[in-house]
Design a protein that fits this description.
The protein is α+β, with helices and mostly antiparallel strands. The chain has two domains: 28-105, no CATH class; 113-333, Alkaline Phosphatase, subunit A, CATH 3.40.720. Helix content is 35%, strand content 23%. It contains twelve helices and 17 strands. The protein has helices spanning 2-23, 26-29, 113-123, 138-146, 151-156, 169-178, 182-185, 200-206, 240-250, 264-272, 277-296, 323-326, and strands at residues 32-35, 40-45, 51-52, 62-67, 72-75, 79-81, 87-89, 94-96, 99-105, 128-133, 157-162, 211-214, 257-262, 300-304, 310-311, 316-317, 327-333. The strands form four sheets. Strands 11-17-14-10-13-12 form a six-stranded mixed sheet, sandwiched between helices. A hairpin with a 4-residue loop joins strand 7 (87-89) and strand 8. Helix 10 (264-272) packs antiparallel against helix 11 (277-296). The longest helix is centred in the N-terminal third of the chain and has 22 residues, at 2-23. The chain is globular and about 60 Å long.
């Protein structure tokens, strides 16, 4: 009899939790993360009552509402949240839903700005080298700067920038080269390779600009030009050194745009953690690569990460709306 009761209890629990999973989507469990450049101000936040954002944090002039499908909506500082996680912007008389994050800042920049800046420089017939520093967060930048590991990056730091949601490589890469967020360019996660809008490589082809894309050992996105892929020839565990050698050769040729994708910071962050010695030492190596490339390149250099990274039990990870994943450093070395 006891065994029968136990089986009945287990069956009831199974049916209960199955019913919950059928009725509730992922967004129903999703709380809101409120953050600024330096830290999370509220994590897993679901208001119990009407809450004005200025009661949480006052030192900002612009807010960016980050939606679960990748849209980013910039609003004024006069808004509140209700218990259903909806945002009401009083000055606009607008209501916004499906918010996963709110970024508060006094100077708003985005990784999507990269497309516009590349295009503007090329319109002026300036040569551009853009380097995607995969998985390099603003927090890592600050720590490396404190350790005096990155003289080149420190000299050319311009501002913090907001990544996109979801903060993973496919989506971040697409946002950088199209200037559009995932709700428009169609690249939301790692499973998507096709973009719904043209990229900076399409612009290059249409305007007779010679462009080169240096990538690791796999093609991340289907772009208008084919990437030059690299294998780990010296078996040291990554392809960044091979990409670096290709870049040194490419700067001697007549390219208008060289786009370089370094993966090693992200790889070590996943394996060891974003602030581990192995990761920080590699950030120092990347800085040395960039310094040498700059000495051989007669043009503009833009350096932009696709996303950051947070610590996890296994080492490091990314893909959630949190300050460490969403806020990255942005660099420009003009001629």
């Amino acid at each position: 009899m006891n065994r029968l009761l136990l089986l009945l209890l287990l069956l009831l629990l199974f049916l209960f939790f199955t019913a919950c999973s059928l009725n509730l989507g992922e967004e129903d469990y999703q709380a809101i993360c409120i953050f600024n450049e330096d830290e999370n101000l509220k994590e897993n936040f679901i208001p119990e009552e009407k809450t004005y954002i200025k009661d949480i944090y006052e030192d900002f002039s612009t807010a960016a509402l980050i939606c679960n499908r990748g849209e980013i909506i910039r609003v004024s500082d006069n808004f509140y949240l209700d218990k259903d996680k909806r945002v009401f912007v009083l000055s606009e008389g607008q209501r916004y839903e499906n918010i996963v994050g709110i970024y508060l800042t006094n100077k708003y920049y985005s990784i999507t700005d990269t497309y516009r800046q590349m295009k503007e420089y090329m319109e002026k017939d300036k040569k551009v080298m853009t380097v995607l520093l995969d998985g390099f967060s603003y927090n890592q930048f600050k720590l490396a700067q404190e350790k005096d590991y990155i003289p080149f990056l420190s000299e050319h730091f311009k501002n913090t920038a907001l990544s996109i949601y979801t903060p993973v490589t496919n989506a971040g890469f697409a946002a950088i080269i199209t200037g559009q967020t995932p709700d428009i360019n169609g690249v939301h996660d790692r499973s998507v390779r096709e973009m719904k809008v043209g990229s900076i490589f399409e612009y290059s082809l249409q305007n007779n600009k010679k462009a080169l894309l240096l990538e690791g050992d796999i093609k991340i996105l289907n772009t208008e030009i084919e990437p030059l892929l690299h294998i780990d020839l010296n078996k040291d565990g990554d392809t960044d050194d091979e990409i670096y050698e290709s870049a040194l050769n490419a700067v001697k040729e007549d390219y208008d745009l060289i786009f370089i994708h370094f993966h090693g910071i992200d790889d070590r962050g996943h394996s060891y953690g974003p602030y581990a010695r192995e990761t920080m030492d590699y950030i120092k190596t990347i800085d040395q690569y960039l310094q040498e490339l700059s000495l051989n390149w007669e043009g503009v250099i833009i350096l932009v990460p696709d996303h950051g990274m947070h610590e996890s039990k296994e080492g490091g990870n990314h893909g959630i709306c949190t300050q460490s994943d969403m806020v990255v450093p942005y660099f420009i070395k003009d001629e």
